[in-house]
Write a structure and sequence with these properties.
The protein is mainly α. It is 57% helix and 0% strand.
Length: 350
């Protein structure tokens, strides 16, 4: 039952102590060349310098604590546990470079293709639908565990969810737009590995650095894989998005290895398991490999399949080499000797 205040009742006594809480009331965040960015605000006040959040409540960095505030059970209250030095800039780039699968893809350039090539593209898009769904679903599971002290990480992961949702949308559209459709489901073992991660760094290493790194290498080969301008544009725009996710993961690994070097062997163990299950970054299941071969060769004649196989091997070697390069940037240069023998040989021969 709601109690109504009589119309002529005197105003209640007001506390107004909150008016005196802010000791930085004269601080101004000044817009720069790129507008009013997270970095601009952090330079003005309340930078993310504390190594620990200091609270388990939903208090955002810079706000005054409240006596008796309820705990929210945030599991990750240490900065190194989720932080990436690149995250403020990556968030700004993400919000400024959104695109639409409905209006930014030249769908009118999609013309009838030979049946085998169309089916190969549909199979490729079917598997990418699964990959991108997991890449959106997994970050969302971690958002409730991250302390608002380092809110930039949460903001960035939300943009990743939007990116991956758009990727799933655009590849589903491509599978359906030219008279094809979704084809065979993938095995899902590598995707399950990402979902089963029990630590944020484990998730990021497997999803961002290994998984999305392999996908981004494929997208960057879009000029070879794409059969028309619509497909080439899709791969180009998706690669642009994946680059951000990959950069976050590499810089997170770098930050935690520098901040908590005792976790090095633990991180190796995550990648050991991922390499074992996936056969190394860039390892593909058979139907995905074969669909890429048909797309690269332009058909299924012996000559086309030979050319497709040659180009697919080139792409795979590139995937492995780029994966190892990212690990070196993160500070895991010794990782090469722990990779599967076949992967080591491809990296050394590239």
């Amino acid at each position: 039952m709601t109690t109504q205040t009589p119309p002529n009742a005197p105003a209640p006594a007001l506390d107004l102590s909150w008016l005196n809480l802010d000791d930085q009331f004269d601080t101004q965040a000044t817009p720069g060349r790129h507008g009013l960015t997270l970095d601009g605000m952090n330079q003005a006040a309340f930078p993310p310098d504390a190594p620990q959040a200091g609270n388990h409540t939903m208090r955002l960095r810079g706000a005054a604590p409240r006596e008796g505030a309820q705990r929210f059970g945030y599991a990750y209250v240490g900065k190194a546990e989720s932080w990436s030095e690149a995250v403020p800039k990556l968030y700004e780039e993400a919000v400024q470079r959104q695109w639409s699968s409905a209006t930014d893809i030249p769908w009118d350039t999609v013309e009838p293709l030979p049946d085998a090539v169309e089916r190969a593209m549909c199979q490729f898009c079917t598997l990418l639908n699964e990959v991108e769904f997991i890449a959106a679903d997994v970050p969302g599971q971690w958002l409730p565990r991250l302390s608002p002290e380092y809110y930039e990480v949460g903001l960035f992961l939300m943009t990743q969810i939007m990116d991956e949702a758009r990727h799933m949308d655009v590849f589903r559209k491509r599978a359906l737009v030219n008279g094809g459709g979704l084809l065979k489901q993938g095995p899902g073992s590598g995707l399950r590995l990402v979902i089963e991660a029990r630590d944020f760094t484990e998730m990021s290493a497997v999803l961002h650095v290994q998984g999305e790194g392999a996908v981004q290498s494929l997208f960057r080969m879009g000029e070879l894989i794409g059969q028309n301008e619509a497909e080439k544009t899709i791969f180009r725009l998706c690669a642009q998005d994946e680059s951000r996710h990959l950069a976050f993961g590499v810089m997170h690994l770098k930050h935690i290895l520098e901040s908590e070097p005792e976790r090095r062997e633990e991180i190796h163990s995550y990648l050991d398991r991922a390499d074992r299950i996936n056969g190394g970054a860039g390892a593909l299941d058979r139907q995905l490999t074969e669909s890429i071969i048909v797309l690269l060769g332009g058909g299924t004649s012996p000559e086309q399949l030979d050319e497709g196989w040659r180009l697919q091997q080139f792409i795979q070697r590139k995937q492995f080499s780029e994966y190892y390069h990212r690990l070196k940037v993160a500070g895991l240069g010794e990782r090469l000797e722990r990779m599967p023998e076949s992967v080591q040989q491809m990296i050394k021969s590239n």
